[in-house]
Specification:
Strand order of the largest sheet: 8-7-16-17-18-15-19
Radius of gyration: 23 Å
CATH superfamily of one domain: FAD/NAD(P)-binding domain
CATH topology of one domain: FAD/NAD(P)-binding domain
CATH class of one domain: Alpha Beta
Strand content: 15-25%
CATH architecture of one domain: 3-Layer(bba) Sandwich
Number of helices: 17
Length: 476
């Protein structure tokens, strides 16, 4: 039994079916996909959540091949040439090559000298916040202007609170193995060459012709009647003889369901609710993980009304700039087919850990606020021809310094309750590629585990229950 039809749940179900397991997936929403949603509106394509994947991503690319989507992939647009940040109230390009960065006036001379000193900073073995890590290794100015903006734009987070080991584990690994980030990057470049897998420059953004939602749609198509959308799991209980009993609500009716194994691929707050009656400490550990609200604002403009060339991924704003947005993505530059001819599309992110109250504003206020930011920063001359808002009441998880202990405790719960598993963006990383990789690894572990569990007998639910899968556990 897989509970949750986001990318983690769909991947787990897909991999288990490939192993020959008897799988049923239950999703409370009318459709699967979780945070992934692609909406076509008047020639525009609005991504409600994630916008892309980052290659190389072996697990994600294998999954894409499995579901036959490889021919539908689209790569980052050739017009993406810059990385823009807001500095001193203006949009400025951040040089990506180290020598250009050190020669540019983006940073003060003092900050540039501090960057050059990074290889001589001794490593630190313990966990620390992203802010502490970046200031220790690269200095305060680099953190306050670059990393703060990056963390706010990509994770809707506060680097003063987030764990570097949880959010950027590769940075801690490089520091540990090479003694410094600069040294580690140079070592990778020498080991793999300019175009090798170890070179960050080879990482490529990609999506699909009709949006990122093509992936969950393809996975759902392959799973067929094993998916039961519109079914909300109300409770999860342990059975005296082993296995689990779930209470599932569908169209106002509630029924019981027994399963030998349950994979909770739901957001942490939902998993906390399901654990609460019989695993109070585990429930509290999950409930304590912050998910500040986030609003996604999509604006479509006539290209002639935007002064900025939009020749980058987008623009990010650090907290010190006190902007109303965390950042704006240049959606129509990033991938083809995101705006009709003669138009451009922007996707802005508002709220998160930095300013959660802003994400709770009325849609009209959010549209006006983001348009004003676009006017000030990008030289937009007229009102958008299209504006849409997507609210996420629970945004991205914000793993702090207590997160390692939380994950360790979840592992103890799994060990103490054979057949129970946890998956989701709070466990393996928030990106689509990370979720897929973690879910695929979990599916391998589940396949080994469920073969050791005595199966719980089950009958297929009747078509009257709205679940016409002959391979699903019983709903009685």
């Amino acid at each position: 039994m897989v509970v949750g039809g986001g990318i983690s749940g769909l991947t787990v179900a897909h991999e288990l079916v490939a192993q020959g397991a008897d799988v049923a997936l239950f999703e409370a929403a009318p459709q699967v996909g979780g945070r992934i949603g692609s909406e076509h509106i008047g020639g525009f394509l609005f991504e409600h959540g994630p916008n892309c994947l980052v290659a190389p991503a072996p697990a994600a690319q294998a999954l894409i091949d499995d579901v036959g989507l490889a021919h539908q992939t689209v790569l980052r647009g050739e017009a993406v040439r810059h990385r823009y940040l807001v500095r001193d109230g203006a949009v400025r390009s951040l040089p990506m090559e180290p020598y250009r960065l050190l020669l540019s006036d983006f940073f003060s001379w003092r900050a540039r000298l501090r960057l050059m000193a990074e290889p001589f900073v001794p490593p630190y073995a313990g966990d620390e916040t992203i802010a502490a890590f970046m200031r220790r290794r690269f200095g305060a100015e680099f953190h306050d202007t670059v990393m703060d903006a990056l963390v706010g734009g990509l994770y809707a987070g506060d680097p003063e609170q987030l764990s570097v080991s949880a959010v950027f584990p590769h940075l801690k690994r490089i520091e540990s193995e090479a003694g410094s980030i600069t040294g580690g990057l140079i070592r990778n470049r020498l080991r793999h060459g300019k175009s090798g897998a170890g070179n960050p420059a080879t990482r490529m953004l990609f999506s699909f012709r009709n949006g990122i939602a093509q992936l969950p749609v393809a996975l759902a198509s392959g799973l067929g009647q094993r998916i039961h959308a519109g079914h909300r799991v109300e409770s999860l209980q342990l059975r005296a003889g082993g296995g689990f009993r779930l209470r599932v609500e569908h169209r106002g009716q509630s029924r019981s369901l027994d399963a030998a194994a349950v994979v909770l691929c739901v957001p942490a707050p939902t998993a906390a609710r399901l654990l609460a009656p019989w695993q109070r400490e585990g429930s509290e550990a999950l409930a304590a993980l912050a998910h500040p609200p986030l609003a996604v604002v999509f604006l479509g403009y006539r290209a002639l009304d935007v002064a900025h060339p939009l020749d980058g991924l987008g623009v990010l704003a650090p907290a010190r700039e006190k902007r109303g947005v965390l950042g704006m993505m240049f959606s129509s530059t990033l991938f083809a087919g995101r705006a009709p001819a003669g138009h451009v599309a922007l996707t802005a992110f508002v709220g998160g850990a930095r300013a959660p109250e802003l994400a709770l504003q009325k849609a009209s206020m959010l549209r006006e606020q983001v348009h004003e930011e676009a006017r000030q920063l990008l030289g937009v001359a007229r009102a958008p021809v299209l504006a849409r808002v997507r609210y996420w009441r629970h945004g991205l998880p914000q793993p702090g310094l207590d997160h390692a202990a939380r994950l360790e405790y979840l592992g103890e719960i799994e060990s103490g309750h054979p057949g129970l598993f946890f998956a989701g963006n709070y466990r393996g990383g928030v990106s689509v590629a990370n979720c897929i990789a973690a879910a695929a690894q979990l599916a391998e572990r589940i396949g080994d585990s469920i073969r050791e569990i005595s199966p719980v007998s089950a009958r297929a639910p009747s078509p009257a229950a709205g679940t016409a899968s002959a391979a699903s556990p019983a709903m009685r």
